[in-house]
Amino acid sequence: TGGRIEPVTREELAQHNRVDDAWVAIRGRVFNVTHYMDFHPGGVDELMRGVGRDATKLFEEIHAWVNYPQLLNKCYIGQLKDNASGTS
Ligand code: HEM
């Protein structure tokens, strides 16, 4: 899946921080986990800790081995804009 062309800024990511509108960034890619929420084996509250932001560290602390690109294949939105470089 390609996702959208425009990368997602951190400001936009931060706006999707609710249980009914939940985006997370993992390893530079942004996913809409709204519909995955009720299926997360770790529960809603745990997954909510990572929404609206870069959840890479949380994700890797708990289950770095989980195959999220496959699980969230249809939930892929696009790349997270790397503010540091300013070009992507
Ligand atoms: C458990 C998927 C994000 C916290 C799990 C499991 C899966 C999963 C498949 C079951 C692991 C097992 O079989 O033992 C995902 C996916 C995520 C995600 C696809 C993508 C967004 C997160 C985040 C957090 C989190 C951001 C925490 C901030 C947990 C916890 C468990 C868990 C606490 C329970 C671990 C255990 O019982 O040993 N998750 N997770 N997950 N997840 Fe996630």
UniProtKB/TrEMBL annotation:
Any idea where the Cytochrome b5 heme-binding domain is?
Answer: 5-81
The UniProt similarity line reads:
Belongs to the flavoprotein pyridine nucleotide cytochrome reductase family.
Report the protein name in the record.
Cytochrome b5 reductase 4
- Residue numbers of the full-length protein present here: 81 to 168 of 534
